[in-house]
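User: I'm putting together notes for a lab meeting next week and I want to include a structural view of one of the chains we've been expressing. I don't have a solved structure, so I'd like a prediction I can at least talk through. The sequence is below, exactly as it appears in our construct file.
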Amino acid sequence: MEYCFKRLDESASAIIKELFVTVFTGEPWNDDWSDEKQLDLYIHDLIGQSNSLTFGLYEEGELAGVSMGRTKHWYTGTEYCIDELCIRTARQGAGLGRRFVQEMEKACKELGVTHIFLLTENNVPAFEFYKKLDFYQLEHNVAFAKKL
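Assistant: Thanks for the context. Below is the predicted structure for the 148-residue chain, given as structure tokens.
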């Protein structure tokens, strides 16, 4: 297989949206991204800002993985805060995600990033995937939300 890892920007928004919707409208997420305007705004929020950092992994010329987030400068160093990371559903479980994260780690180090931060649910396969890649669960942090 031929693989290509690269940094992406808003010019790739159409293919990013296609992959994102394909993955996250299916199991186990079942997100409803039928509102095209809301989807466009969300993708722009993730990849169209001055501190956005988006990576893609292509397999045989097709976008097979994407990571969308931002850099944040913290007292412990610069963090890559990943908002969304996905691998094409048909390619999950074949080592592509591991390869993608390893490439991201190398690219982040070259950019001076010292930490990668992300959130996921603890009852989905992604939880175990990140643990296998030496991500650790923060003990003293919790996520809060409030519906308005």
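A couple of points you could mention at the meeting. The CA atoms of residues 13 and 100 lie 19 Å apart. The longest strand covers residues 62-74.

User: Perfect, that's what I needed.
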